Amino acid sequence: MKEFELIKEFFTKQAVQRKDVLLGIGDDCAVVSCTKNQKIVVTTDTLVAGVHFPLGTTARAIGHKAVAVNLSDIAAMGAKPSWISLAITLPEVNDEWLTDFCSGVFELCEFYNVQLIGGDTTQGPLSITITAQGLTAEDKYLTRSGAKAGDWLYVTGDLGDAALALLHLKEGVLTDNEAIEQVQRKLDFPKPRVLAGQALREYASAAIDISDGLLADLGHVCQASNVGANVVLDAIPLSETMKKSLLFEDSIELALNGGDDYELLFTVSEDKKVGLETALSHTSTAVTCIGQINASQTISTTLNNKPVPIKNSGFQHFTSP
Question: Which of 31, 76, 141, 161 is deepest in the core (most CB within 10 A)?
């Protein structure tokens, strides 16, 4: 099957047909229209086999995750996802693999009313690059640079389960099949907090999605905002699976530095705490206050109200194992 036959067979068959897409797949460029008084936010992420997902990951999971990690970035800006473009490099054309991959892509796109409007296909080692675009009201988007001393620090969901899944794949630390299935699903099918991100837009002072680990991504917020933070370790939300599977210190290590959570980390001032928690309750999103921003320009942690040392790492490309 040649390139353009592949595109027609697998990537043009999607349920979402947005009215603001004037010209989609099939031309040299897509053409979209933007509503008056709205801004477009743009993000790009690449997933490489063996780096961003284990080599045995299913095609459907790869498709889902490729979209999810981009929509998570859109969510962190408080925007509404609208369009994606996809560049995929394939070792070979495998009809069954591509069908499952597209199922993963289009299931998430349909749920959030996102349309695939273009991209590219090439032959080579498996990698997927998606560029996602979203819409937000003018001057109503979140950044990493708005946190202030005194703001409270929150996260959505539970942390560390995806890292636990990777740890199990490497070291076989889990014995319960139900636990293995639960954490594997967290790794393979992350849920971007799109609705929560839009709710945060009116209340949060800064936000970021947790992709490289809580401490690493909190460090980005602190650096951009020129502030510090204290994280209360006994407040970090852990799933029941995590609590039953590992010792507390090992669980906290994964939650702090494991990455692949794709939850939102955000800050909010004292006077907006109640409004924020109320707004998020309407999205059915669990949130936890895990600390507070300060003026120290460093990140510290406490446990049982006592300071404890931390190793601030998280995932970074181009570093030695």
Answer: 76
Task: Give the helix/strand (H/E) hosting 160.
Answer: none
Read off the CATH number of the domain in which 292 is found: 3.90.650.10
Structure tokens at 159: 């942390």
pLDDT of residue 1: 61
Joined together, the tokens standing for residue 21 give: 């897409």
Do both 98 and 133 map to the same domain? yes
* Predicted confidence (pLDDT) per residue in 163-204, tens digit: 999 999 999 999 999 999 999 999 999 999 999 999 999 999
Q: Tell me the whole-structure pTM to 2 decimals.
A: 0.91
CA angle 197, 203, 208 (to 5 degrees): 45
Q: Are residues 216 and 257 in the same domain?
A: yes
Distance between CA atoms of residues 79 and 94, nearest Å: 35
Domain that holds residue 119: 3-137
pLDDT of 315 above 60:
no
Task: Collapse the DSSP code of 213 into the 3-class scheme (helix H, G, I; strand E, B; otherwise coil) and give the result.
Answer: coil
